[in-house]
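User: My collaborator sent over this chain with a note saying "see what the structure looks like." That's all I know about it. Can you take a look?
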Amino acid sequence: MLQIGDKTFASRLLLGTGKYPSFQVQKEAVNVSEAEILTFAVRRMNIFDAKEPNLLEELDLKKYTLLPNTAGAKTAEEAVRIARLAKASELCDMIKVEIIGCDKTLLPDPFETMKASKLLLEEGFTVLTYTSDDVVLARQLEEAGVHAVMPGASPIGSGQGVVNPLNLQFIIEQSNVPVIVDAGIGAASDASYAMELGADGILLNTAVSGAGDPVKMAKAMKLAVESGRLSYEAGRIPKKTYATKSSPDTAMIE
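Assistant: Without extra context I'll predict from the sequence alone. Here is the result:
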């Protein structure tokens, strides 16, 4: 089970709700993924006006925990304001802190991210913080009290997969809160690899919504996360330079 703050989840796949070709495809993809946490950008949705299109309106929201995010924020103050807006709508007390510091790479601003995380923790939010794969920053965010650290596997929407497995491994080894790999996942093999390294969960959007068949990819991601976790828990054999016989030398027929 995945424990985030005081909430427990059976699925370790967190799914974004944006950029699907249609509401129907989105609904089917969410269903087959069996994700229990759905994330969305508060700034890109009118959550108060019932007349406005809402990407979540086709879903039975009683089945899910919603994870609003602060995408679009450039400062801690903006992120806090967005989080308060989400909380005022009574969607959830969980928030994904995302503050972009570079428009080209979409990498997060570490200083504003830390500031916003601390402010929202003081206000009683369950804080999940999107960050780079900076090992020291990840540790400092945990020390500040965040409920989950969310390092990017590679730049947002790039589909490059895990480009720095060593840093990701370091973050996982030192963490006592969930490490949820967020951003850059492109294929099911990327998700499985991240989970095999010991990640507690995967958050993705474009890898599913932008796939040729989003519904099939959603199912593939579900299975990849599950198999990667099982592989990690089972413990892989060590890598060796030379071959090792799979059959014993004793009791051989002469």
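A starting point for your reply to your collaborator: The mean pLDDT is 90.
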